[in-house]
Design goal:
Number of domains: 2
Shape: globular
CATH class of the largest domain: Alpha Beta
Number of helices: 8
Bound molecules: calcium ion
CATH topology of the largest domain: Rossmann fold
Strand content: 15-25%
CATH architecture of the largest domain: 3-Layer(aba) Sandwich
Number of strands: 11
Radius of gyration: 18 Å
Order of helices and strands: EHEHEHEHEHEEEEHHHEE
Largest sheet: 5 strands, parallel
Length: 226
Amino acid sequence: MTRILLVEDEAALARALAQGLRDERYAVDIADNGEDGLWAARSGEHDLLVLDLQLPRIPGLEVCRRLRKDGNHLPILMLTARDTTADVVTGLDAGANDYLVKPFAFAELLARLRALLRVGTRATGVELTAGDLRLDAKGHRVWRGATEIAVTTKELQLLEYLLRHKGQVVARQKLIDALWEHDDDPESNALEVHVASLRRKVDRGAEVALLHTVRGAGYVLREPGR
Ligand code: CA
């Protein structure tokens, strides 16, 4: 049985979410503060962490950072009440795999959970490259040169799609269709947020930029020298 850890201090929301998830046949454990949440997440008993950002004792972002610092790869879906790009980017940089802005539809939460859980079991097993950038789709790992880059689930999917269409300009809508289920519309700037974050990780400090924006058309990943 898939076991979800829910760290949420709003008792009524936590109860409602837990009930809904149990109805979908997930096992659910609840923690109502960051300290207990971190302790529970470190137990290794869970398949996924749903993490509120504003929590007593230890804030959600810090829980996220500490887990990743431990080398813990538990998929993390963060819940945020603050619909600002800065918070979302900070959360993704801290190691969260995806995010939802409150209030959200329960069906949307389920769709995100399914997507995150699928990544762990997907077996493509192909290594994709562009210049000194390498992506191991099965192992969920990315390198630029000899340096491994930590990417979120969405960034990995985005990069994988662009690598599979290397040298081609990919339209925004194509990427949105590839990255989100059709019943799961992202916020209007969600794609741009993920692209900006991915670009920072992949191209910052590199001699040659690989990920390019083609204004009014979309995005392209170019092999250096082409
Ligand atoms: Ca909260």
